[in-house]
Amino acid sequence: MTHLFTRRGLWLLPLVLLLSGCDLVLLNPSGDIAAQQGNLIIVSTLLMLIIIVPVIILTFVFAWRYRKGNTEAKYEPDWDHSTKLELLIWGAPLLIIIILGAITWVSTHKLDPYRPLDRIDASRPLPADHQPMTVQVVAMDWKWLFIYPEQGIATVNELVTPIDTPIRFKITASTVMNSFFIPAMAGQIYAMAGMETTLNAVMNKPGTYEGFSANYSGAGFSHMRFKYHAVSDEEFAAWVQKTKAENAESMDRTNYVELEKPSEREPVRRYGKLDAELFEAIVNRCVEPGTVCMKDMMAADANRLRVDVLARNLSKNEAAARLALINSEVCSSTPNLMKNEDARAY
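The structure corresponding to this sequence follows.
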C-alpha cells in the first residue's frame, strides 16, 4: 500500500509544481480597484462557505449516524418539527443574505466604474481637485486603438500609463460590441458603437500586464489582445516624447478609416500626431467625410418634434416659418441635414 501511495504521489508531483507557478491575477491584482473587487470575491465566498461547509459535513454525519446498520440511532417516525432547528436552518442563511446584500449595496456604489476615484490606494487619498489622465479607447475588428488627447498621440495594441495616476478611460467601438478588460487593473467594461462608456481606475505597481476583449466579436477575437505597460511618471514622459519624435504619422480620419478595416494579429503602431476631434467623430459615427453625425441627426429629430407640437397650435404658415428657422440654424453646422421639403410638408 505504501509503495502504491508513493508512486501515486510521484505522479501528482509535476501537477503540484505546475500549479505552484499559477498567478491568479483576479485575486492578486496590481491596481486598487481590482484589489477591492478581489477582496469582495473573497469575502463573499467566505460568507457563503459559512453555510455550505456545515451543510456538506452534516450530510455525511447524518448519513453515517442514521445508516441502516446503526441500531443505536434514535428512531422517531412521527417527528415532524423543531422550532430550534427551524430557526437555525432559516436564520443563519437569512443573516448571510442580509450581510451579502449590505456589502453588495456599498460596493456597487463605491466601485461604480463611472465614479471618480477618491484614493490612489488604501493608504493614499486623492485631493478633491485632482484631475485624472484621460485615455480614449476604441475597440476595432480585431485590435485596440488608444488615443491620448492630452499628449496628442495614439497607439494600436499598446497601452502605457504612469503608476499611481488615476486614469479615466472613455471607451467605444467601431462596429460590434466588445469588452475592455485588464484583469490586474479593474473589471471589464463594454465597448459599443455609437456609445461611450467610462472606467475610472489606477495601477499601483509597475510592470507589463495583459489586456484583451472579454466579449466574443468574430473570427479574430482570440487575437484581440494588447500589452499594458505601467511605468513611472518619468518613463511615461520619456515614452511620449519618443513616440512624438520617432513617429511622424498622424492618427487622423484618413488613417483611421484605413485602420478600421478588419485585420488580425495587428502589430503595435504609434502615431506622433492626433486629430483632436477624432474620438468624438468615432462615437458619433461620422468619421468619413459627408457623414451626418449622430448628435446632429438626433438634434434635428428633436427639433422636428418641437415643431410638430407647435404646428398643432400654430397656423400652417407660422409652423413652416418656425421650421425654416430651425432648419437654417442646424444646417449651418451640418449641411443637407434638413431639406426645405421638410418645411413645405407643413
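The CA atoms of residues 220 and 264 lie 6 Å apart.
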